[in-house]
Amino acid sequence: MMMRIVAVLCLAVSLSALFAGPVAARAGCSCATRTPQQHVGAATAVFSGTVTDVRVDEPMLDGGSVTVTLRADHVYKGGVAAEFEVVTKAQGPACGYEFVKDSRYLVFASTRATTSCSGNLPLPAGDQPLRLSGKAQGMEPLTPELIAALGTPTRVNPAPPSAPDRIGLPAIAVALGVVVLMGVMWTRRRARAHRNR
């Protein structure tokens, strides 16, 4: 009788370990603890910017895929550009980072990819360089270690506004001149035709 109880317990423990492993792996993303210097060192691009577009590419396949477009205001590492595109997983358990349109972030990306383990942080709106400050509502404080690791940023010049239509006053004056000239010519022809009758 005792052997049966031990056998049933062993079977129960084995089955729970077998099924608990995959469930625990799917339950959440596990990140190794890193210092700000390690986050900067592992990234190929570090910048602050505001999200202008979030596009879900593959919502379910292998954690899904989301492409995020950000308008940069400062670049701390990597090539300077007015706009960056980064890719992350669509699902948090697959270590995807959730970006919200019109929100500003500090982004750590490696060859265009970023995760919830990369060190990304939400930032207050605006385009000011990062500096030590108190904790904004719902945001982590910027630590001296992070500010030191980031170093001096390069300010991104905003994209020039699209050139206004050059029609303006001179073009309108030319168009009116052509209309008046055509009217004068038409009136003269009509007058000549009337005299020749």
Structure description:
This protein has 197 residues and is of the alpha+beta class. Helix content is 35%, strand content 22%. Strand 1 and strand 2 (65-77) form a beta hairpin. It is elongated.
Features:
alpha+beta, single chain, elongated, six-stranded antiparallel β-sheet, 4 helices, 197 residues
Task: Provide the succession of SSEs.
Answer: HHEEEEEHEH
How many helical stretches?
Answer: 4
- Helix share, percent: 25-40%
Question: What structural class is derived from the secondary structure elements?
Answer: alpha+beta
As a percent range, the share of strand residues is 15-25%
Number of strands: 6
Shape: elongated
Low-confidence stretches: 6-26, 162-168
Rg measurement, Å: 32 Å
Mean pLDDT: 78
Largest sheet: 6 strands, antiparallel
Amino-to-carboxy terminus distance: 132 Å
Short description:
The chain is built from four helices and six strands. By secondary structure, it is α+β, with helices and mostly antiparallel strands.
List the helices and strands and how they pair.
Blueprint (H helix, E strand, L loop, with lengths): L1 H26 L8 H7 L2 E14 L6 E13 L5 E6 L15 E6 L11 E3 L20 H7 L3 E2 L12 H28 L2
Antiparallel strand pairs: 1-2, 1-4, 2-3, 2-6, 4-5
